[in-house]
Amino acid sequence: MPERLSGLRTPEAPASGPAPRPSAGTDATVRDDVVVRLDSLTKRFGSGEEMIVALDEVSFTVRAGEVVALLGLSGSGKSTLLQHLDGLQTPTSGGGNVLGTELAAASTGQLRALRRRIGFVFQQFHLVGRLTVLENVCTGALGRLRGPRMGLFSYPRGVREQALDRLGEVGLVDWAFQRADTLSGGQQQRVAVARALMQEPSMLLADEPVASLDPESSGQIMRLLKDVGRSRHLTVLCSLHQVDLALSWADRIIGLRDGRVVLDVPTEGISRDEVMRLYSAVGEDRAGRDGLSVPVGAL
Known about the structure:
Layout: H1 28-31, E1 34-45, E2 52-63, E3 67-71, H2 78-85, E4 93-98, E5 101-102, H3 108-116, E6 118-121, H4 133-138, H5 157-169, H6 185-197, E7 203-207, H7 215-232, E8 235-240, H8 243-249, E9 252-257, E10 260-266, H9 272-289
Parallel strand pairs: 3-8, 3-9, 6-7, 7-8
Antiparallel strand pairs: 1-2, 1-4, 4-5, 9-10
């Protein structure tokens, strides 16, 4: 399989990554700091003929404050990549460093500490529907509290006040005492973002956060993630299928295909048609292997 797809741009030195575009109010010194450095990170599941290569020698860097969209077909490795960044998976070979933690050599305790520094927003909101919105947000602080919590007032007052602040940040403070399952899908995802922010994270990961939302709600959630990233100087990496959203929201696009990085470019100056080749070229390549068309490497 060719490492690069014709018509798709990857950097000459992928390990360095493109320089992010500066934004107003962002400390340039902070943005120069590399918070993610992956070096030939590879993940395989199974063995022999049943072995699946989920990530294949993935190398790139991400700087503090950068907003990155991960694009690719289902099964291209986006979710697996995010799970490695969060310490939920360990590489089969290669490795990398995330927020100062070496992924391949980290102990269980070090990976647990890494996860406390990373907020994660999922496609499914994972809220407890019968609990109030405020208590759902408070659960984001459990990683720094001792012992179980039963009921809103089992959380310290400072945590409850902080949760209200986070709800204000996502525009839902008026819904604080409403049951979570009475909210719309877009509102529930906002609650999930507020819960992730309770960790006071250095990085925010989002795995298909708008896949189940309508176009209007999707745009609102992506604008929220970008605004939160800018205001808090957070590094944000988000997997998506919506090319238009990625182009309007991210500083940079990293495209995956069959576990490999085949596209790594700033969004400024790249066309929608060029990004869409990340999807259309897959069909062309498969047709080529069946003898129905030329392989992608020859395009």
